[in-house]
């Protein structure tokens, strides 16, 4: 009987170890380094993060790097602040996890006067977390947090004028693709304007499928080609 109890204990113990081990292995971690965009030297910064869309998980870190767990397959908004640098804001998506179960995002800080620091004219930012319904211009509500980061950037930089540039993949009818890309950037502009940003500060341009990032005929390549980019025209 004692031998049976020992065997049962060992079985339960092994199952517990395997279960906890799998749970730990399945956790995704966000990691990145903070550095001066011009000198490449590490910068000591304040890093705050919160889960999206409700901010139910949040935290604050200090240092030249960050690392925190991403739970429940949620996206996270990250804000990095350091004296003498422009505020940097990113959205981290668990879909970008690598083989090591990490979402990596280094943060180059641009020297300037905090929130009022100017972004470089000509700088292009890809809105990686902007989601549309397939073949349509309707913005998925999951995209709102990233668009709100754009709104905040424009409120902090009151002289900024941007151009929203729409791209589709190169499949299908070229005219339909051009029209779809125009409708999508118009939808993004309407959202930003609804947040009390002047229409005159937002230009739009449609490229359809004429400027693909990849010519590979794969679902991943086509997804990469379907994008909206933000170009800073004035600041």
TrEMBL record:
Pfam family of the protein (one): OmpA
OmpA-like domain sequence ranges: 119-235
Keywords: Cell outer membrane, Membrane
Chief place where the protein resides: membrane
Domain of life: Bacteria
Record's GO cellular component terms: cell outer membrane
InterPro entries membership: Bact_OuterMem_StrucFunc, OMP_bac, OmpA-like, OmpA-like_sf
UniProt subcellular location: Cell outer membrane
Protein name, UniProt field: OmpA family protein
């Amino acid at each position: 009987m004692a031998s049976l109890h020992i065997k049962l204990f060992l079985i339960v113990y092994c199952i517990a170890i395997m279960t906890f081990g799998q749970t730990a292995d399945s956790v995704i971690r966000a990691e990145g380094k903070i550095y001066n965009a011009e000198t490449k030297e590490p910068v000591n910064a304040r890093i705050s993060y919160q889960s999206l869309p409700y901010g139910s998980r949040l935290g604050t870190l200090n240092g030249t790097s960050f690392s925190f767990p991403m739970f429940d397959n949620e996206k996270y908004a990250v804000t990095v602040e350091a004296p003498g640098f422009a505020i940097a804001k990113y959205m981290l998506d668990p879909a970008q996890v690598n083989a090591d179960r990490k979402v990596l995002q280094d943060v180059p800080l641009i020297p300037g006067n905090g929130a009022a620091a100017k972004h470089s004219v000509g700088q292009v930012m890809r809105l990686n977390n902007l989601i549309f319904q397939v073949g349509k211009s309707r913005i998925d509500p999951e995209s709102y947090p990233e668009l709100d980061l754009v709104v905040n950037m424009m409120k902090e930089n009151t002289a900024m004028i941007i151009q929203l540039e729409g791209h589709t993949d190169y499949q299908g009818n070229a005219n339909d693709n051009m029209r779809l890309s125009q409708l999508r950037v118009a939808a993004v502009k309407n959202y930003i304007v609804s947040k009390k940003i002047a229409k005159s500060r937002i230009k739009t341009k449609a490229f359809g499928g004429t400027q693909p990032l990849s010519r590979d005929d794969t679902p991943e390549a086509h997804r990469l080609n379907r994008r909206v980019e933000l170009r800073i025209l004035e600041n």
